[in-house]
Amino acid sequence: MGRRRGKTTSSYTPRQQLELFYRRVGELAQERLLLKGLRPRLSLKYTTDDGLSTILREPDEVDLRSFVLSFRHFFAKGEPVHLYSIYALCDRLISSDELRGYARQSREHWKEALTRSGIGMNFNGREITPEHITDLWINGHYFHSDQDKMRELESLMRFDLKVSRFLFLSFLCDATRQVMYLGDVVGVGLRKGLVRELPVAGAGG
Fold first, then answer.
1. Where are the domains of the chain?
2. Rounded CA gap, 63 and 66, in Å?
3. pTM of the entire structure?
4. How confident is the model over 137-152, as pLDDT tens digits?
5. Phi and psi at residue 43, in whole multiples of 5°?
6. What is the pLDDT of residue 80?
7. Helix, strand, coil: what percent of the chain each, to 5?
């Protein structure tokens, strides 16, 4: 029996996508990891006996796995609530200039987080962006859906597990702030009737 698939983006009206996004943000806000606080920290330690070592403070792995399951809805391209899709819908549907301005500011922060978050990482002369390392951790580790990504992540982990892990966790922190912020923007728009209705594609008279 085939695996059931969720709705695709085209299965929703634009307003339904915003409503689904708002619900997903509410679900993310209830994740135990977020309630506890996601605060990774990477520090260096030097002793004359052991030399230089890195120490990573990271969250409980069970909590993190559950959190990633919810977070990936906003990160994975093709998902109805992928953040870039929601930013575009805010531009089209929200009638308030002020709210659209807040959404645009958030989009700039999101774009920055995708390219710079936490610390820089260079592997074999190649700059590893937070977006790329997060894709590797999500699809090559937590969901094991892409063997090429699994192999690339294993190579990075052999190079420096803690640095690649910290870059991933730092991005989760920065990205989640924008998800929650945009959730507030969309929530205000929905509650105050500031979201326009657009005709469904193909409907006409």
1. 11-191
2. 5
3. 0.83
4. 999 888 877 788 888 8
5. -135, 160
6. 95
7. 60, 10, 30
> Which neighbouring-strand residues pair with 94?
195
Q: Mean pLDDT score of the chain, rounded to an integer?
A: 84
Q: What is the pLDDT of residues 98-115, one digit of tens each?
A: 999 999 999 999 999 998
29 touches 98 (CB < 8 A)? no
CA distance readout (Å), 78 to 7, 57, 81, 84, 158: 10, 32, 8, 10, 31
For residue 12, pLDDT beyond 70: yes
Identify the CA nearest to 59 among candidates 173, 177, 197, 201: 173
Q: How far is residue 174 from each of residues 14, 194, 200, measured CA to CA in Å?
A: 26, 27, 34
pLDDT at 77 over 60: yes
Place of tokens 């728009």: 189
In the chain, how many H helices and how many E strands? 7, 4
| Cα torsion angle, 195, 196, 201, 205, sign | positive
Q: How many CA atoms lie within 13 A of 96 on its CB side?
A: 16
